[in-house]
């Protein structure tokens, strides 16, 4: 058993058994195992590749085993998924992929499990990836299910994406979006404004004035060497924070709030911007563990920031008319970050959306009430789902009527950006800015700006 495969398997088990996130577990697992750079890259590819294509691989396993994947012991199913990924999507030799997976199955399930795994994977290895794609497509009961099986996205997610793209008149981009979701994103850094600058070997990102990428090297080393003033952060997250701080000129003494601050990436950008312009910043995160991440995120910014651990709805109710700018980076389905968190597509269901939108609406409503006259709230989700974006905002505007007005977030983001982003008008006439993985190489961040009149 190679160290890389062992690390990948244990990470898959934690993801599926404990609802852990691979992007949080895998780096620590690689470090504990002492993997070489090559083995670390292999473990990363095996882990994320298997998670991204789980839906397709389960269909292949079901055909090859002639039984439903749900009837297979979860420990063995993860070994099979890992083996199928190596057989159909990597250059790993077939005999190595089969033998290593059989050894793994024997360790966790005994001789019977090893025999079953050997039979299934040898059946898979006899046909080409193209032949398996055709065989899987033949099992689809609808066009959307065929897309779901080939792209490894749940049907309800595909339909939500199609509706969100159609709201921009771009429904024909669905295939490009699904492909982007299954492509590993490049590491993007943010140099906190006024506190850090990219090195001479850095390449600027196309949109965020804070963003840059490096040709290689360990991201952790870059971050650690900067004392936290350079961060790994998606370019879309950078733009979301800057859309709030640069929507208009900052007046000295303004008071800002990051209402749902964890894990703290946007908070760090807000803190650096507040420091540069003489503003005050408060941060709130209901989860103590995530509040700890917020405190670590802002440690490199020489600004005193109070981090509270409250329900954001209670906090805003106690502070009406207090803040000049509020970021509501609301809890959401996370469908916009499937490149980085591929397992999220399998964890949410359509029924989760209603509960989330109710919470999102309450947080946004509380934030509006906590704004001082003329104050601005940025309502941000890492999801393009229309119920979480336009639906929540429309309800807030109905509730507050003339007490709020919507600003043109697309114009603000375009003005902040180093080059012009492709941000089509929304068919509902709103000023919402929607970023996309396939179009902007960012997470699918939705950004709405509302001003208290």
- In terms of structural class, how would the helical and strand content be classed? alpha/beta
* Residues in β-strands, percent: 5-15%
Query: Overall pLDDT, averaged?
Result: 96
- Count of helix runs: 20
How much helix, percentage-wise, in residues?
A: 40-55%
**How large, in whole angstroms, is the Cα Rg?**
23 Å
- How many β-strand stretches? 12
Q: What global shape is seen?
A: globular
List unreliable stretches of 5+ residues.
none
Sheet with the most strands, sense and barrel status: 8 strands, mixed
Intertermini distance? 64 Å
Write the layout of secondary structure elements.
Blueprint: H1 3-18, H2 22-33, H3 37-52, H4 54-65, H5 74-89, H6 94-125, H7 129-137, H8 143-151, H9 155-166, H10 174-181, E1 189-191, E2 203-204, E3 211-213, H11 219-225, E4 230-232, H12 235-245, E5 255-258, H13 265-277, E6 280-284, H14 288-297, E7 306-308, H15 312-318, E8 323-329, H16 344-347, H17 350-369, E9 371-381, H18 387-400, E10 404-406, H19 409-416, E11 433-434, H20 437-440, E12 446-452
Parallel strand pairs: 5-6, 5-8, 6-7, 8-9
Antiparallel strand pairs: 1-3, 1-4, 2-3, 9-12, 10-12, 11-12
Question: What can you tell me about this protein's structure?
Answer:
The chain has 453 residues and is an alpha/beta fold. The radius of gyration is 23 Å and the shape is globular. Helix 4 (54-65) packs across helix 6 (94-125) and helix 17 packs parallel to helix 18 (387-400). It has helices at residues 3-18, 22-33, 37-52, 54-65, 74-89, 94-125, 129-137, 143-151, 155-166, 174-181, 219-225, 235-245, 265-277, 288-297, 312-318, 344-347, 350-369, 387-400, 409-416, 437-440, and strands spanning 189-191, 203-204, 211-213, 230-232, 255-258, 280-284, 306-308, 323-329, 371-381, 404-406, 433-434, 446-452. Strands 5, 6, 7, 8, 9, 10, 11 and 12 form an eight-stranded mixed sheet that branches. Strands 2-3-1-4 form a four-stranded antiparallel sheet, covered by helices on one side.
């Amino acid at each position: 058993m190679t160290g890389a495969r062992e690390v990948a398997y244990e990470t898959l088990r934690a993801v599926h058994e404990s609802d852990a996130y691979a992007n949080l577990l895998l780096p620590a697992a690689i470090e504990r195992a002492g993997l070489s750079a090559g083995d670390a890259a292999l473990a990363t590819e095996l882990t994320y590749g298997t998670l991204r294509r789980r839906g397709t691989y389960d269909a292949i396993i079901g055909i090859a085993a002639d039984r439903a994947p749900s009837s297979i012991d979860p420990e063995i199913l993860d070994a099979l998924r890992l083996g199928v990924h190596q057989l159909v999507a990597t250059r790993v030799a077939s005999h190595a992929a089969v033998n290593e997976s059989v050894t793994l199955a024997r360790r966790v399930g005994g001789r019977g499990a090893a025999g079953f795994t050997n039979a299934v994977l040898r059946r898979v290895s006899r046909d080409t990836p193209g032949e398996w794609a055709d065989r899987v497509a033949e099992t689809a009961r609808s066009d959307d299910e065929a897309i779901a099986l080939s792209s490894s996205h749940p049907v309800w997610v595909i339909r939500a994406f199609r509706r969100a793209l159609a709201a921009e008149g771009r429904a024909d981009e669905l295939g490009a979006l699904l492909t982007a979701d299954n492509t590993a994103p490049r590491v993007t850094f943010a140099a906190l404004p006024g506190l850090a600058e990219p090195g001479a070997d850095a390449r600027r990102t196309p949109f965020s004035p804070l963003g840059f990428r490096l040709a290689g090297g360990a991201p952790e080393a870059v971050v650690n060497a900067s004392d936290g003033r350079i961060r790994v952060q998606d370019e879309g997250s950078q733009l979301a924070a800057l859309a709030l701080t640069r929507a208009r000129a900052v007046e000295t003494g303004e008071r800002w709030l990051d209402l749902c601050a964890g894990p703290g990436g946007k908070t760090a950008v807000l803190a650096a911007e507040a420091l540069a312009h003489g503003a005050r910043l408060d941060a709130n995160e209901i989860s103590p563990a995530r509040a700890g991440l917020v405190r670590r995120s802002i440690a490199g910014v020489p600004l005193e920031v109070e981090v509270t651990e409250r329900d954001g709805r209670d906090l805003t109710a106690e502070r009406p008319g207090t803040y000049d700018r509020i970021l509501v980076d609301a809890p959401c389905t996370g469908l916009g970050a499937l490149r980085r968190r591929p397992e999220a597509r399998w964890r949410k269901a359509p029924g989760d959306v209603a509960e989330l939108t109710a919470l999102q609406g309450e947080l946004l409503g509380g934030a509006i009430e906590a704004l001082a006259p003329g104050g601005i709230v940025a309502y941000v989700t890492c999801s393009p789902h229309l119920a979480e974006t336009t639906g929540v905002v429309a309800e807030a505007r109905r509730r507050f009527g003339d007490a709020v007005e919507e600003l043109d977030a697309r114009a603000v983001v375009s003005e902040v950006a180093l080059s012009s982003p492709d941000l089509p008008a929304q068919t509902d006439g709103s000023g919402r800015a929607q970023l996309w993985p396939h179009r902007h190489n960012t997470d699918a961040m939705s950004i709405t700006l509302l001003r208290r009149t």
